[in-house]
Amino acid sequence: MPPTITPPVPKKISVLSAAKPATEIANAVNYKIKGMLTGPSGSGKRMSSTTLPGKLLLLDFDGRKETVAGLSHVETLDCYDSDPKSPKGWMYAEEVRRDVWSSIRKGNLPYEGIIEATLTSMLRYCMNWSLLLDPKRGLGGSPAKQHYMPQMKNVSDHILAMKSLPLHYILTAHLEIIEDEEMGGLKYLPKATGKMRTEIPGWFNECYFCSREKDKEGKLRYYWTTAGTGRWDFLKSTLNQLGKWWEDPIEINFSREIVGFRDLLGRRFPSSIEKKGVSNA
What we know:
alpha/beta, Rossmann fold, nine-stranded mixed beta sheet, two-stranded antiparallel ribbon, Putative ATPase domain containing protein
């Protein structure tokens, strides 16, 4: 009888071989801003989000795209409807999400970053869609209990999918004051539904507070606060690792060529300011 030939067993490759040195995680070439800008209306959230490098797409849920009028590196899409009860804004945003992913797979997406403004309106339009799932209503035609979970799940899935894009991504949000049941007192959190208030900040590397104030000459100046404690403990910046690269507050002076996110990227990666496309000029 001929000898039995046993085929070689392929050597199993350990999943640990995929581990990479931490020194290769962040550099000027591959670093993508994943951030949330919070603050009251008029604090400069939308405008300062456009300081991301490269060509940007703004998904406007508020009907306030005029804020970015004249910016040559920004294009806008309307994700709202004149009917406050319409779900079309949410359905269109989901269509945009699918098209963005499709364009990335095909390699023809013309944008380096996406901005969604704001979370408050996004939640409102998603609730309009959620109301279609069950005809039952609360008092005065308000949403019933069963409408909130679909809203929370779908908005969460949308944000996480957009954040996972190989692009810069900014979500703008308003704030609300809530009672801290564990520690007592009050604290600030993004305005959202239920547990999303505490979960959303954990999804982002950058969580900033936007503010404005008048200087001695009466001129408005805009600022970012990028780290906080106590009432503001959700504020943080991974870009400013261990506070090595800047101190708060960061002035957002739109008269400067390199400002906002382009400024902070330049501080973290000093040699990249011009070579790696940090400037939009």
